[in-house]
């Protein structure tokens, strides 16, 4: 199957892949397609680009010694997994859907995990988080946000999240609540290195008060992390404002 055939196949499905195109340098014009699920390469790889593919989540230009390369990422949209069907959860799911993400809500309380309460959730799981995560299988393209404010849900949800490759793990709560939560997680066997992944208090410092504002704060932080940005004012940022997508 040719490279063009593979690209047409990718456009019709949700298989994860990365297409590298050499823009400048000795191998200008060369293309390499990395099919991640199949561990398959289509094309030549004179620059050793294939190992970079699994860590890429967005389109962008890569600078290699003596060459400029553009990486185009194919695959399903990012996923947001929210634990706790609270008001902020619906606002967060609505915001995530607006930027093209797939949204999932988990709540062991069946009376809360309903389409009426969570109309913006693409998937609903009325299960304990650790059980739901077995089906959801959060990956590098998944953000997990815990909003329950209840230790019996928070702790198992976070322990389960740390066992995945989720690129973003956040938890709502005050600094005092976060400190207590970290102590409980350590008791559950979570390491200091794993705790470094936890965004808590979750979100950017924008003075959020309402559920909608809190959703913007959380989604903004997740978007920034996914893009490799700090989430600060653009006027204080160095480098390009817009990354090629």
Give a summary of the structure in a few sentences.
With 245 residues, the chain is α/β, with parallel strands linked by helices. The protein is 31% helix and 22% strand.
Describe this structure in words.
With 245 residues, this protein is of the alpha/beta class. Helix content is 31%, strand content 22%. It has 2 domains: 3-74, no CATH class; 79-227, NAD(P)-binding Rossmann-like Domain (Rossmann fold), CATH 3.40.50. The strands form 2 sheets. Strands 8-7-6-9-10-11 form a 6-stranded parallel sheet, with helices on both faces. Strands 3-2-1-5-4 form a 5-stranded antiparallel sheet, with helices on one face. A hairpin with a 4-residue loop joins strand 2 and strand 3 (40-43). Helix 2 (87-98) packs across helix 7. The mean pLDDT is 90.
Amount of helix: 25-40%
Number of domains: 2
* Count of helical regions: 7
* The CATH topology of the largest domain: Rossmann fold
**Could you tell me how far the N terminus lies from the C terminus, measured between alpha carbons in angstroms?**
26 Å
CATH second-level architecture of the largest domain: 3-Layer(aba) Sandwich
The CATH class of the largest domain turns out to be Alpha Beta
Oligomer: single chain
The rounded Rg comes to 20 Å
The portion of residues forming beta strands comes to: 15-25%
Q: Mean pLDDT, as a whole number?
A: 90
**Class from secondary-structure proportions:** alpha/beta
Beta-strand segment tally? 11
